[in-house]
Amino acid sequence: MTGALLVSTKPATMEVWRRELLALDPALDIRLFPETGPVEDITAAVTWNHPPEDLYRYPNLRLLISMGAGVDHLFRPPGPPPGVAVVRLVDRLLTAAMSEYVLLAVLRHHRQAELYRAQQKARIWHELPAPDTENTRIGILGMGTLGSDAARKLAALRFKVAGWSRTPKRLDGIESFVGDAEMMKFLSRTDILVCLLPLTPSTRGILNARTFAALPRGAYVINVARGGHLVEADLLAALDSGHLSGATLDVFEIEPLPGEHPFWGHPKVIVTPHAASITIPRSVAGQVVENLRRLAAGEELLNRVDVTVGY
Ligand code: NAP
Ligand code: GLV
User: Fold this and answer.
1) How confident is the model at residue 136 (pLDDT cuts 50, 70, 90)?
2) Which end of the chain is more exposed for a tag (fewer CB within 10 A), N or C?
3) How many whole angstroms from 215 Cα to the centroid of ligand 2?
């Protein structure tokens, strides 16, 4: 790599990133934000929730690397500086962890785990109706790296799985729905809705009153993508009216979720602190170093983001 790499995230995590990157390439010149040194030195940056306007201070910046699968943090106004390439992480462990979380949320709902737990607390021996897996329809919004892996694993458990994306997908045993024209048809056949879309101008607020109304009564919602996908008041209304049976939420418009937020104590909502799938620096350092090498060599970058669509 020519020039220096800026690393920016929580202070304790930055040290881990430095260690893992140097273990693979001891020659790297790494600067931990805000100790950047001369701004002209920085040619690449690997960041998470970095102040977007700060990235305009580095005149020689050529590559922005997201520390996660999502890149919406890089597209917050004013967005990435013009002409700077953007890449994201695609990682075996990140994908596997997300599928684990989605399977856990689906199965906890499907197997009535909360109800059995409540019965145990009350010392009640009562068999609930057996779940009908082959007739439970799961719909996944977003059939990219994460959505398609979760879809395959759910289909292997014999759920009826469908996915919704911008372009058609051909995956064994998984129905594909495409674009706005097929959205309502997709929702009307979905008992458990999982959101794994990137947050872009076209997907912001997609989990709203209209979407919920199109789901069958009793449907369940799992949002593991971004808080900006969900219109929180619409979810609360659909839960409180009884149209939706519950929700598992890992991501929120405001994170950390404020202490007074109604989701915390809602009997139909399960909250986790944006922990569905956490990047493990050791697992992804290799692709970061490889992209720095490719940048220097003028080669095609791995996991490049289309800045015109924002994912
Ligand atoms: P990805 O590979 O880029 O896949 C995105 C999928 O969404 C693609 O199938 C894409 O369709 C579809 N899509 C995008 N815009 C659409 C639109 N307007 N209409 C219909 N479909 C649309 O992304 P990924 O790696 O699977 O990650 C998905 C998201 O998960 C990330 O962006 C991030 O926000 C979230 N995430 C959350 C956590 C967590 O811990 N909670 C962890 C990691 C990631 P095409 O295939 O047709 O392009
Ligand atoms: C986490 O939210 C990610 O985008 O990797």
Assistant:
1) very high
2) N
3) 27
Catalytic residue chosen out of the listed positions 226, 229, 261, 304: 226
Q: Is 256 found in the same domain as 107? A: yes
Residue ranges making up the domain that contains 147: 92-271
For the Cβ of 69 lying below 6 angstroms from any atom of ligand 2, the answer is yes
Residues 165 and 78 in one domain: no
Co-location of 116 and 39 in the same domain: no
List residues bridging with 269 in a β-sheet. Answer: 247
Pair (245, 115) in one structural domain: yes
Active site residue 243: no
CA–centroid distance, 88 to ligand 2, in Å, is: 10
Q: Give me the number of domains the chain comprises.
A: 2
- Point out the ligand 2 atom lying closest to the alpha carbon of residue 71: 4
> Domain containing 171 — which CATH number?
3.40.50.720
